[in-house]
Amino acid sequence: MRKIYGILFSIMLLCFGCQWQLKPSDAGDAIQISIERYDRIESLYLTTGDHSALRQMNTYFPMQTRTLIEDVLRLGKVDDPETNHRFLHFFQDSTLQRMLADVQQQYADMDDINNELAAAFERLQARMPALKIPHFYAQIGSFDQSIIVADGSLGISLDKYLGADYPFYRENYRDDQRSMMVRSMIVPDCLAFYLLSLYPAPRELAGTPDGRHQHMSKIQWVVNEVVGRDVFHGKMISDIDDYMKSHQQQTIDALLRGNVNYYFSKK
């Protein structure tokens, strides 16, 4: 059974396309990442009803299409002909049609995100050599999940990153949520959700809000480190930072597995 990690990032705070390429890890080689533009063929089908586009979705992007239709939108089985009709009809809503156009306009070029992802994962892999880099692709949902991690792939729902002042967001999300629904949060979100899929909260932490918050603070600290900016803030993150700076022999793997004994607060 596929595991999907696509929780809104605000909840975490509260407690055709190109293939990505990974060069051999010889000295001097750099990671290269290019997000596969599944969203473009998806948008073509949803705006024109072109069945050749649907065939391309099912032929060239079977995993992405199945995950989107069955797990994200929950419209039925992807091989059921009626599901295709529901999928197309669902996106005929005027708000969603406007969103499809806005996504293609705002994300006509994603080179900046490709480059930032490559730099961040290169830093992370330097600290975690065994880390496998996922296959990245962009998709369009219906304002629900932001990042989808399943079967070694990571899907970015571009409809969740249209800017804090996007009209639909202003009507349906709080200010603190909208502040994170911006282009600059795509890479931090990718890192956080991917790490969460690899390091779910240990049983002793997962059972309480404080425990889940502790675990997420560890992941957020790692994200801050590898993106090179303070995306996330908080007392617990500061305590982790102090600990890791004074215990530089500790690994990120040990931190995220819960094998590091530190005190978040002595007050």
Outline:
This protein has about 270 residues and is mainly α. The protein contains 14 helices and 3 strands. Helix 12 packs across helix 13.
Low-confidence regions? 1-28, 263-267
How much helix is in the residues?
40-55%
The helix count comes to 14
| Ends distance | 43 Å
How would a textbook summarize the main sheet? 3 strands, mixed
Fraction in beta strands: 5-15%
Give the helices and strands as they follow along the chain.
HHHHHHHEEEHHHHHHH
Q: For the CA atoms, what is the radius of gyration?
A: 19 Å
Mean pLDDT level: 87
Helical/strand content category:
mainly alpha
Please provide the count of β strands.
3
Give the helices and strands, then pairings:
Elements: H1 9-14, H2 38-48, H3 51-60, H4 62-72, H5 81-90, H6 94-106, H7 111-127, E1 135-139, E2 147-150, E3 153-157, H8 167-172, H9 175-178, H10 186-198, H11 203-206, H12 209-227, H13 235-246, H14 252-257
Parallel strand pairs: 1-3
Antiparallel strand pairs: 2-3
Helix pairs in contact: 2-3, 2-6, 3-4, 7-10, 10-12, 12-13
